[in-house]
Write a structure and sequence with these properties.
about 15% strand, single chain, seven-stranded mixed sheet, three-stranded antiparallel sheet, 14 strands, Aspartate Aminotransferase, domain 2, 2 domains, alpha/beta, Aspartate Aminotransferase, domain 1
């Protein structure tokens, strides 16, 4: 089938946070959902279930776990058992559950910066000490893991390392050597890995996603992997995700804590997630081709048309991480909102030291992306 990712859909007439937070003259290129219709198979399966008309308490289905199991094998060369898959409402709930399940007050958690903002809430939610390990930035602007830097961030109290791979907001898909170096440190210090892999299916042609738990049995035994169809298939509002935990002791504790604090997966969300993993591959392959064109368009435009703005080409996600440090703007996201009427994520949302950055969502029709970029260029040239 052919799918029309150029189709312009009016989302202001829906409950969209992305499209209704700002005034109607603002083009939103911020929060990480896309402006594309979900695959027809998902819409059809939801409609079939809605036609039934009763939406009572639901039991998670093994068929959903099987769909995830087969997807991980086919797309990521990772073989897991059906029992390893635990259905949960969301990835954010998942890493908070992990903190509750495997730590005690006074322990510490470790994660890289820049970081997806909800990572910063986990320590406070569980009375933990927060430790951040800044990713190293090379001259090209690309972020990398340096083993010695990561090792030096570990303390005797560190119990969980919260990995984000692919990385939000930088767009890195970490290499096998980087993943092994982090896992080596965690194994040495008996640190659990909670790996947020929600963007694992949004990886471009020059690289591939490697689940850290797939690298060895020893690494798998200390890893909780969190994943979802939500970002990939634009179903985030349906609240359905999964944890993959091969260690039965860790899995049992995670399940018990999920039941206490997070609750069950959404009925319609589970149907959408199952359908995505069973029937969504053709749609995803076409989406990735479209997003890669958008990514390249964004990168070239930033390099040639936005003076003082720099970015490295993201290997994954539909998010651009733009360094506005050479523009002289003290608050670039505020400038682009007020002067260009384009809404972007403020870099400080990903860490206080990133105030000169903005995050731009290119998961939209190319017409919208070009409109936003042209507005940004005009604002910079006219200031």
């Amino acid at each position: 089938m052919n799918y029309d990712f150029d189709q312009i859909i009016n989302r202001r007439e829906s409950e969209s946070i992305k499209w209704n937070l700002y005034e109607t003259d603002v083009l939103p290129l911020w929060v990480a959902d896309t402006d594309f219709l979900s695959p027809p198979s998902i819409i059809s399966s939801l409609q079939d279930r809605i036609d039934h008309g009763i939406f009572g308490y639901a039991k998670p289905q093994d068929s959903t776990k099987r769909a995830i199991q087969l997807w991980l094998d086919k797309r990521h060369n990772w073989k897991v058992n059906l029992v390893d898959v635990v259905l949960i409402p969301g990835v954010v709930q998942g890493f908070n559950v992990a903190a509750k399940a495997y730590t005690n007050p006074g322990d510490s958690i470790l994660f890289h910066t820049p970081a997806y903002h909800p990572f910063f809430n986990v320590a406070q939610n569980s009375n933990l000490i927060q430790i951040t390990s800044p990713l190293s930035r090379d001259p090209s602007g690309s972020y990398k893991v340096i083993e010695d830097d990561f090792q030096s961030s570990v303390t005797p109290e560190t119990r969980i390392f919260m990995l984000c791979n692919p990385q939000n907001p930088t767009g890195r898909a970490f290499s096998k050597s980087e993943l092994l170096s982090m896992a080596k440190v965690c194994l040495k210090h008996k640190i659990l890995i909670c790996s947020d892999e929600i963007h694992s299916d949004l990886v471009f042609t020059e690289t591939n996603h490697i689940p850290i738990a797939s690298l060895s049995e020893d690494i798998s035994n200390i890893t909780i992997t969190l994943l979802s169809a939500s970002k990939t298939f634009n179903i985030a509002g349906l609240k359905s995700s999964a944890a993959v935990i091969t260690n039965p002791i860790l899995r049992e504790r995670f399940v018990q804590t999920t039941n206490r604090f997070a609750g069950s997966v959404n009925l319609l969300g589970e149907i959408a997630m199952r359908t995505a993993f069973e029937n969504g591959e053709d749609w995803l392959n076409m989406l990735l081709s479209y997003l890669e064109i958008n990514r390249n368009l964004l990168f070239d435009f930033v390099q040639s048309e936005l003076p003082g703005v720099h970015m490295s080409k993201p290997e994954s996600t539909y998010l651009g991480w733009l360094d506005c440090g050479d523009t002289g703007l003290r608050n670039p996201s505020g400038f682009f909102l007020e002067q260009a009427h384009v809404a972007l994520n403020n870099g400080s949302w990903f860490g206080d030291e990133y105030n000169n950055f903005v995050r731009l969502n290119f998961g939209c029709p190319q017409e919208r992306l070009l409109t936003g970029l042209e507005r940004m260029r005009t604002a910079l040239l006219q200031r």
